[in-house]
Fold these 2 entries.
Entry 1:
Amino acid sequence: MQPLDNLNQPREPADDYAAWLARSPTPFQAVATCVQQLRAAGFAERAYGGSLAAEPGERIYVAHPDGKSLIALVLGSRSPCDTGYALVGAHTDSPDLRLRLNPLGEAAGTVQLHTQFHGGLIRRSWLDRPLALAGAAYHVVRGKDGRPRFHELTGLPLVTRSLVHVDAPIAVIPDVAIHLDRDKNDKGAVNPQTMLNAVLATGDGSIDEALAMLAARAGVDFAELDGFDLHLVPAVAPQRVGLDRSLVTGARHDDLAMVWCALQALCESVDRDPNPVRTRVAAFFDAEETGSLTSSGAASSFLRDVLVRVARRHPATPASADPEQAFAHTFCISADMAHAWHPNFQDLHDKKHAPRINQGPVIKANASDRYATTGETGAAFVGLCEAAGVHVQDFVIKQDLTCGTTIGPIAAAHLAAKVVDVGCPMWAMHSAAETCGAKDLEAMVRVMGVFFVGG
Ligand SMILES: [Zn+2]
């Protein structure tokens, strides 16, 4: 299969995005790829458990200890108590299949990996697709005597985390033949308990043999693991699609496309204006697909803690000021993907609110507050798009359908800040192969750039 490359065509941002996405199969790797890029742009790590005092112009990032959420900041010259934060939020997790505890089993002459699902994935999209394995593996640190070692201050067993990415098609979840299930085209429900287990190997080989092969592939001895967060992910790399190469297919556009856009905009903002007045923040959270109520989700105290601590220790913050004053002036762009008008399902959109692929960012509004956009914050985003020279669209779900939600309302509630919910339009959200528009990514980066740097 030849990639749809035109040798005369220069490399475009969407190509960079596709390559970045391929290196980010799970929230762990997504955070790691972000960190790599931030370091290259001069950002330095600050431990969540250490001091967050930083000077104007300093670039820092704080990774959540669980490795799945990340906050990056460019410190402004004025106190955040005066200027508020220029904040963009997005999420690192996507609907996918994860290994159950004790995941291996044998059935019908195969060794299987038993899975559980994260978020509202389109189950059928995971069938008949080469799958790779990625995530994190954990070991208890043991002394020479074989006994667990403990942290001298916290008193907890020492546990190490290593990232795993077996970037090879090591498994598949086969569908069943239509000859054996004649009704499947009409009634093809996919039972997640019984029909989403993946075949890892065939033959008379035992589980031990499969484990040995996996260890050889992954460089991790799975039999020795004390814990894991491992995901099965599509083994097909994201790619440009369409005669005009205007589309990008791949897993996890929701919401790594918005993570990538925010990251580009933040890093580029440093080149354009390295000494901002207002502190710029890009915050990426895990667990949006399951409601955000985890240690590092948007509903945790992670973001608020970091912002309060940075504001309190900012050299321009007077001793008389309370750091929470910053939230009164803070504006948050909550960036999560939007549903594009679908050529094969045209009636699912209200024609007046039917965003089209490659026609620009989408403002998402919902009167039941599933999105945090208000008339005022939507207007501000229109102003940003105008200053960026970018066409803007809007989305209001048909009133006889149920609206999804995102981190916007959560951020608004936790910070009491102004929030607008936006995203790039896409098809097949939560499929194992989603489709978004190449030009929309560039447009969103431009708009976020204006937000960070100014018009
Ligand atoms: Zn999302």
Entry 2:
Amino acid sequence: MGMQVTMIGTGYVGLVSGACFSEFGVDVTCVDKDRSKIDKLLAGEIPIFEPGLDRLVANNRKAGRLHFTTDLKDAVEDADVVFIAVGTPEQEDGSANLDYVFSAADEIAEAMRGYTVVVTKSTVPVGTGEQVRKRILAKNPDAEFDMASNPEFLREGSAIEDFMRPNRVVIGAHAKRAIKRMKELYRPLYLIEAPVLVTSIPAAELTKYAANAFLAVKITFANQIANLCEAVGADVHDVVRGMGLDNRIGRKFLHPGPGYGGSCFPKDTQALARTARENHEPVTLVEAVLEANDAQKLRMVDKIEAALGGSVEGMRIGVLGLTFKPNTDDMRDAPSLTIIPSLQKMGAEVIAYDPEGMEAATRMLEEVTFVESAYEACEEVDALVILTEWNQFRFMNLKRVKQAMRSREDGRYVFCDFRNIYEPDVMKKAGFRYTGVGR
Ligand SMILES: NC(=O)c1ccc[n+]([C@@H]2O[C@H](COP(=O)([O-])OP(=O)(O)OC[C@H]3O[C@@H](n4cnc5c(N)ncnc54)[C@H](O)[C@@H]3O)[C@@H](O)[C@H]2O)c1
């Protein structure tokens, strides 16, 4: 008989990984306690925006390998491997909230029958695997199981490709039986020679945080170099290209912008900094990054203010892009959630458009006028601000943009491109008062 996998939590990670495992031919049941999510999936709808996911889910459901339910007990009973892929959001003090992980663990403990591998796929602080093991044993002393940690590295927007062709798979486990089962599950990836690293559980847990924090450091470094470029009159794109061509540095994640956001970097950097402090080994580099990233977001507000001649009061500002990056509808910790309210507080009126993020944005932003297209967001605005580099914003008809916008006293149009997708010289020639990041 083939492998039975159960995924607890059917969000960005649980749904994508569940669907991808079923594509490998494994029988997968995705569980969520959010009934509306499961109802949607059962009706053939996809609750999130992720390119290619609709087809993948539909195909595997049709093939009978992918199931959705709210009934955790039923889904766990016969599972060989149970993944915990629930949220681990940030708490007030910066630490990861493990309530969802622990409550899932308690339910698994009661439902488990026969030898099961329980895997944390959620991003969890070092030591969580051990805590989960103890909790399960406390609830069900006879449970026959082993723990594993299998952190997920997929990126929203290219999640399926990332899962199917990962740079690496990290499996933290101690028990031979668990390692064997986990390796078997990822066997389809051996063909493409994806490295599978087997480590201890704490090492796997920490790898995820270390990787995300390193990437956050890299982006923040590019942002600070960009800010320095502004002061000394260099183009940051020349600088980061010159840096990135050095193989030891690498070109990726050196693109300056309005500060990182999203469902992972902000909370994972916070949590790592906290874990490090608790263990009396502070990672001060990451602590500095947290501060710098907050400052970077607010710096964008200052730039808009400066571009408008010193004040945004009474100004209409059009914002293009609200999600933390393109190709997702995820609004969690997006820079727009800091920048827009700051502008409003200073008396600006904000008009916004995002191709996929507006439904979530309406719940997270107040008093914003949401419009249906990029050009509508240009209408009668005193400044246009690009916050997310959706492809459709890359080739705007600039004539049309200007016709819609209000010009400044000098006849120019304020254009703040915080993803550097337009060329400063071209924009200046076209009659814009152009502001990028580090150029
Ligand atoms: N989103 C990403 O890009 C990404 C990438 C890598 C790792 N991660 C990590 O993966 C984890 C999940 O992230 P996400 O973005 O998928 O979160 P999410 O909020 O999209 O999904 C979590 C789901 O779990 C469900 N849930 C919570 N408790 C449950 C329970 N007891 N039983 C059943 N369902 C339950 C929620 O209803 C929700 O649908 C987090 O730890 C995150 O840090 C996320």
